[in-house]
Amino acid sequence: MNNSNITISLCMIVRDEEQTISRCLDSVTGIPDEIIIVDTGSIDQTKEIAQKYTNFVFDFEWIDDFAEARNFAFSKANMDYILWLDADDIISGSDRDKFLILKKSLDPLIDVVNMPYILDLDEYETVAMSLRRNRLVKRSKNFQWFGAVHEFLKIDGYVMNSDVCVTHLGIRDDPNRNLRIFEKQMIKGNPLSGRDLFYIGNELLSHRLYHRAVEIYQKALQQEDLWVENKLSACQRLAGIYHHLEEKDNELQFLFKSFEYDVPRAEFCCHLGNYFLENGQYEKSIFWYNLATKLERPGENWGPAEHACWTWLPHIQLCLCYDRLGNYSLAYKHNEIARGYRPQDPRILYNKKYFEDILSP
């Protein structure tokens, strides 16, 4: 075990982030030994705010390529390891404490540390959606970013799975930016990977261009280079689109297609449960929701995880199904399990009283 601190360069690319950059930099106090800020064309006070935290503020002419900007930022780093964040990310107090412990204890043989990335919190400030990202990388390995948009860091070597979380608190300012960059790439005739196609599908979906999104997602699924987690996400999004379009057969097709790529995930089981619930097929719905409660959660799942599907949601839906079937004791049982996850949820508390009134002698 290494007993001396590693040194860390924090590298960020920013543009018009005056509302968020101080929150981010304040949250990492004590973690980085130097801060590298690369500005890609701010017209607000972002650079002036950044200069209060570091002397290393650089300009980078924006060329519609996030990977190039991040690689430029990495090239300015001088410390043992590089940490990257976006201006609308934070490292919360408890995670900051864990990060400082990690900094003191990290084995110098480790090349990469990946961390959970919290994308959404529910109304009780519990994690609702998360995935994992490679966050801390050894500078001497000269890892590079790839991809004009939705860029990724290509890594190898010894990887550590950390429980230190980064939390995303941002609001997307320019909803057309990513799609515009992708369209520019296509006009240039640049080859598109399965990953590119998947993210183009996501952009089209966010713009509610459903039929174009379906076409692109299906094309992405045909690419051999598409990562399994992206294949699963594509199936989930296709099922969601077909649910919206009320094309039930196609919805069901892509829910089951997900099983070609991995063992059942709770997200798909819950979607199947809802599919049969909406059709009044309560026994079939119970089967899928019950399966969701029995699945072993992937320990280091890198893809997006909907935490409700792995915890309280299938139980509250089982409660509903059993209530519809008149099995109030099982309905009450599953409502109580859901209450263990969400003890203050007014819907669950209402159910508790409702079933206790029914079941009382």
From TrEMBL:
One Gene Ontology molecular-function label: glycosyltransferase activity
Keyword Acyltransferase: no
Keyword Nucleus tagged: no
EC top class named in words: transferase
Top-rank lineage group of the source organism: Bacteria
SMART domains: TPR (SM00028)
EC number: 2.4.1.-
InterPro entries reported in the protein's UniProt record: Glyco_trans_2-like, Nucleotide-diphossugar_trans, TPR-like_helical_dom_sf, TPR_rpt
Record's keyword terms, sorted: Glycosyltransferase, Transferase
Span of domain Glycosyltransferase 2-like: 9-93
PANTHER family (alphabetical): GLYCOSYLTRANSFERASE (PTHR43630:SF2), POLY-BETA-1,6-N-ACETYL-D-GLUCOSAMINE SYNTHASE (PTHR43630)
Name this protein carries in UniProt: SPBc2 prophage-derived glycosyltransferase SunS
